[in-house]
Design brief:
Strand order of the largest sheet: 3-2-1-6-4-7-5
Number of strands: 7
Shape: globular
Strand content: 15-25%
Radius of gyration: 17 Å
Oligomer: single chain
Largest sheet: 7 strands, parallel
Helix content: 25-40%
Structural class: alpha/beta
Low-confidence stretches: none
C-alpha cells in the first residue's frame, strides 16, 4: 500500500466551494469582550476559512492584534463596533439575526446538536475568564456548550469560536 498523496494548493483551491462571500447575510463572530490579542488573529483566520466575518469593539490594541494575526495575503472581513457592545448586539437581534451565545448555562445545547445556520447568525463570545455578561446572555436566542472531558472549565475564545463557526457553516 502506498502513502497517501498530498493535494497541491491549486488542487485544494479548485475543490473548494464556489460561493460569494456574504458576511452580512450569513455568519458573523463577535468576541465582544476580548482579552488576548493572539486569539483575535486566530479567529480572524477561521473566519476566512468558513466565509464569516469578525465583529470587534474598537479598542486601541485590537487593530495591531488583527494585523499580526492575519497571516493571509488579502484583506479580511472585519467590522468595527462603536459604543456599547450590548446596544450593537440588540440592534443585530432586532434586525433579524439569530444570536448564538457560546456559554455554559442551564439551557445550553451541546455543540453536536447545533444546527447549520439558515439565516444571518451572530456568534457571541465572552471574556475568557468571566464569559458573557448577563446583559449579553439576555439577548441570546440560544446558548451552546462545548463538552469537555479534561480538567479545564473552558476553551480559549479562538478555539471555541472556531468550533462553533465550523458547525454553523455546515463544514463539520
Amino acid at each position: 500500500m502506498s502513502a497517501p498523496r498530498l493535494r497541491t494548493r491549486p488542487e485544494l483551491r479548485e475543490q473548494r466551494r464556489r460561493r460569494a462571500h456574504g458576511c452580512w447575510n450569513h455568519l458573523l463572530v463577535a468576541p465582544l469582550w476580548p482579552k488576548h490579542s493572539a486569539n483575535l488573529g486566530t479567529l480572524l483566520r477561521t473566519c476566512d476559512a468558513v466565509g464569516a466575518c469578525l465583529a470587534v469593539p474598537r479598542r486601541p490594541w485590537v487593530p495591531d492584534a488583527l494585523a499580526q494575526g492575519n497571516t493571509l495575503r488579502h484583506r479580511s472581513c472585519v467590522h468595527w463596533i462603536e459604543g456599547r457592545v450590548e446596544r450593537w448586539l440588540a440592534r443585530q437581534r432586532d434586525g433579524g439575526s439569530a444570536i448564538v451565545g457560546v456559554e455554559l448555562t442551564d439551557e445550553s445545547i451541546r455543540l453536536a446538536d447545533l444546527p447549520t445556520a439558515r439565516r444571518r447568525t451572530v456568534v457571541v463570545l465572552g471574556h475568557e475568564l468571566s464569559g458573557i455578561p448577563p446583559e449579553g446572555l439576555e439577548l441570546a436566542d440560544v446558548t451552546v456548550e462545548i463538552p469537555m472531558v479534561g480538567t479545564g472549565h473552558s476553551l480559549n475564545v479562538a478555539v471555541a469560536g472556531s468550533l462553533v463557526l465550523y458547525k454553523l457553516a455546515g463544514l463539520c
